[in-house]
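Quiz preparation item.
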């Protein structure tokens, strides 16, 4: 594909931020378009975590025994400011899956209770919900929200219309994993609350990608990751619980502080390496220097441009409006039908990596194949050109 920097007269890639890719640990030989999966980290964050590990190893009891409380509190204060929440209403967990499981497995469900989500749910969350519903004679249901999406209201209508008398909990993604849609969670929470239904927001992708105020959203529960868009060490997630629900929610590992409240229970989940949680403020410092607002604007503008650019290059219909109004820092693009000649999404993903040095997910959702591109401060428009070129070349190669 020829280098089309402006697919749309109004759509342009952003000017790169002053964020030299060399500050990141990523291999510069790979076009890394999959930040959304496990995130990626700067060298400074890796060093900060190493330093904390050395401090622990030098004085294990002082660090993890006597020092743990104030150390965790300080890290939580910084994270809470980013999330628009109070530190006392959240606990660190290893990942969003763990935070979501803590909620699901703390619920007292009875036979017939329904756990509801959408067809955009992350598969690990689907499995957790199925397990918990199945164990107590409850039901698990997904409401289909079809693509292409034209408006926020279409999503609100589909989800609100699916709430029923048996719905006990609605799990809604803030940013969906396979389809990269930013869900109108505020309106959805309002619709569910109006019917007395609790909402658990899966915010795995939201911190760092969206300007968050969890306290203003005020769902019953909000779980998220810091190892994705905050680029904190792997194994850093959190669970926020609204004060009126906190007495009922416990970590997956119940330990000494059972019954002492959310903050105390989550601050000790057995002996573990807490260096990742403590390094979250170091990860945030990098983006604070660049300015969170600038980072978010850059990433969103790049995602909006890449979305339109790839749809045009591949000749496919966009899954969401081209103005980017339903996107954050990722975009999911349909692949032409001939992509399926590769046999499996994993096979095409491997070809892109092995032959073209592009790391990007290829996935199946609702019978179609898609690719999802992530856009962070180290990404450049040429990398999306490279992906379009590679896909066009590979699809041509498979023609009989
Ligand atoms: C929407 C969503 N929820 C949950 C998760 C799970 O994240 P983790 O593996 O860190 O628990 C992911 C991971 O990509 C996700 O995209």
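Solution:
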């Amino acid at each position: 594909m020829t280098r089309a920097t402006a697919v749309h007269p109004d759509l342009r890639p952003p000017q790169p931020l002053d964020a030299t890719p060399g500050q990141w640990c990523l291999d510069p030989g790979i076009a890394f378009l999959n930040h959304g999966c496990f995130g990626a980290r700067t060298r400074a964050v890796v060093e900060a975590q190493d330093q904390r590990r050395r401090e622990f190893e030098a004085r294990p009891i002082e660090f993890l025994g006597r020092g743990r409380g104030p150390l965790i509190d300080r890290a939580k204060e910084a994270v809470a400011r980013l999330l628009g929440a109070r530190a006392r209403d959240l606990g660190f967990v290893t990942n969003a899956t763990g935070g979501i499981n803590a909620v699901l497995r703390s619920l007292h469900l009875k036979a017939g209770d329904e756990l509801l989500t959408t067809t955009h749910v992350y598969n690990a969350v689907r499995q957790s919900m199925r397990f918990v519903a199945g164990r107590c004679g409850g039901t698990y249901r997904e409401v289909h929200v079809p693509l292409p999406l034209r408006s926020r209201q279409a999503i609100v209508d589909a989800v609100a219309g699916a709430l029923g008398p048996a719905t006990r909990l609605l799990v809604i993604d803030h940013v969906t994993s396979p389809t990269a849609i930013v869900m109108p969670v505020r309106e959805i929470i309002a619709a569910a609350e109006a019917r007395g239904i609790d909402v658990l927001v899966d915010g795995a992708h939201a911190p760092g990608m969206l300007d968050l105020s969890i306290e203003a959203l005020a769902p019953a529960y909000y779980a998220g990751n810091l190892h994705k868009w905050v680029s904190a060490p792997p194994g850093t997630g959190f669970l926020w619980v609204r004060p009126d629900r906190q007495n009922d929610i416990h970590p997956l590992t119940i330990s000494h502080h059972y019954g002492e409240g959310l903050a105390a229970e989550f601050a000790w989940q057995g002996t573990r390496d807490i260096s990742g949680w403590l390094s979250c403020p170091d990860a945030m410092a990098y983006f604070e220097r660049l300015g969170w607002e600038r980072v978010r604007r850059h990433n969103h503008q790049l995602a909006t441009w890449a979305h339109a650019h790839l749809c045009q290059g591949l000749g496919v219909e966009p899954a969401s409006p081209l103005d980017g109004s339903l996107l954050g820092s990722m975009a999911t693009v349909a692949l032409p039908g001939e992509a399926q000649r590769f046999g499996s999404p994993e096979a095409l993903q491997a070809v892109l990596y092995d032959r073209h040095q592009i790391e990007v997910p290829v996935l199946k959702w609702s019978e179609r194949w898609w690719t999802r591109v992530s856009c962070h401060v180290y990404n450049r428009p040429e990398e999306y050109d490279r992906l379009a070129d590679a896909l066009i070349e590979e699809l041509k190669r498979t023609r009989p």
